[in-house]
Specification:
single chain, 319 residues, alpha/beta, TIM Barrel, eight-stranded parallel beta barrel, 38% helix, globular, binds ligand G3I
């Protein structure tokens, strides 16, 4: 069996200090992305400062371990420094261009894929309000891709969003946007589907959805996969929930494997011990493939059972 799908994980720069975490990421994955360290707010605490310390740590780790890197993310409405919204609108194109030139330029030739514009559409599939959209209109998307391509002609440049796993109005809107960008000669190379799901509600048309973007000549990727479930303080995930979660992970990875243009399947976090979910969705958790004690869950088996290649160690115990 040939398997071109690379399995990846979002990495927390601080957690890399934990040898067990570092070793698990190194053993299990072939691609990594920065969960937060390459976002605008983290890189640009103020207008005159670029702080690359944590982004560099992730790059150095990835390069030392021979991992590909997905860069995340250049133009996003969230985790954006307040000084951007405070800057006069007519200065914001210059701010975004300088940011892209500097960040993409710093890692030129070293980051394989960049999420250039993240979450460009809102839940009604309309252009999302952001300081970039407010100042530059919808053209900020094309401009961001052109600037990123100039800064690193070898990087594969992606749109990326959530709630676009299936054929649906929001993914339809992305399909039209992608066609339009390509028709205008914009250097768009990929479409990233984040893949944040709730247990028991797996995508039903993900393969068809991935395939239609692939048919435009784009690369596609699952970029931020997790499957959250309702949990309480006293009652953790039940065996039934864990089995349902594994089935949902399996549904997604099988869809990804069925589309040759799908190159990566990236988990949004390694374990339930460090997760963005409880802080964001009260009463939900247990979304990842390892539990809080770093024991593999059925979802681990679902993701890794059909994965081939010498870089995948199958022994699942982390500690
Ligand atoms: O850095 C501060 C730290 O100084 C402070 O002590 C601490 C206190 O809570 O907060 C830290 O900031 C947190 C930051 O992550 C870095 O850890 C923020 O509170 C927290 O809100 C932030 O959450 C991140 C979230 O994006 C922000 O929207 C999550 O870790 C990250 O997993 C999540 O990732 C996003 C993707 O980038 C895009 N797609 C959706 C996905 C989930 O929201």
């Amino acid at each position: 069996m040939t398997d071109t799908l690379r399995i990846g994980c979002a990495v927390d720069a601080f957690a890399l200090d934990d040898p067990a975490y570092r070793d698990a990421i190194a053993r299990l994955f072939t691609v990594v992305t920065a969960e937060n360290a390459m976002k605008f707010l983290l890189l640009r605490p103020d207008r005159d400062t670029y702080d690359f310390a944590n982004a560099d740590r992730i790059m150095e780790f990835a390069e030392a371990e021979g991992k590909a890197v997905r860069g995340h993310t250049l133009a996003w409405h969230s985790q954006l420094s307040e000084w951007v919204a405070d800057a006069p609108a007519e200065e914001r194109a210059g701010i975004l261009r300088d940011h892209i030139d500097t960040v993409v330029g710093r890692y030129r030739g070293r980051i394989e894929q960049w999420d250039v514009v993240n979450e460009a559409l809102d839940d009604d599939a309309q252009p999302r309000e952001s300081p970039w959209f407010e100042a530059m209109g919808i053209d900020y998307i094309a401009d961001a891709f052109r600037w990123a391509h100039e800064a690193d002609p070898s990087a594969r440049l992606f749109l990326n969003d959530y709630n676009v796993e299936d054929l649906c109005p929001k993914s339809d809107a992305y399909y039209e946007l992608a066609k339009q960008l390509l028709a205008n000669g914009v250097p768009l190379h990929g479409f990233g589907i984040q893949g944040h799901r709730i247990v028991g509600d797996p995508p039903t048309s993900m393969r068809e959805n991935l395939q239609r973007f692939a048919d435009l000549g784009l690369e596609v990727a699952l970029t931020e996969v997790d499957v959250r479930m309702p949990v309480t303080e006293v009652e953790h995930a039940s065996d039934v929930q864990l089995a349902a979660q594994a089935a949902d992970y399996r549904t997604m990875i099988e869809a990804a494997r069925a589309v040759p243009a799908c190159t990566s399947f990236v988990l949004w976090g390694l374990s339930d011990a460090h997760s963005w979910i409880p802080e964001t969705f009260a009463g939900f958790g247990a979304a990842h493939v390892f539990d809080e004690a770093l024991r593999p869950k059925p979802a681990f088996e679902a993701v890794f059972s059909d994965t081939v290649g010498p870089s995948y160690a199958k022994e699942p115990v982390l500690r």
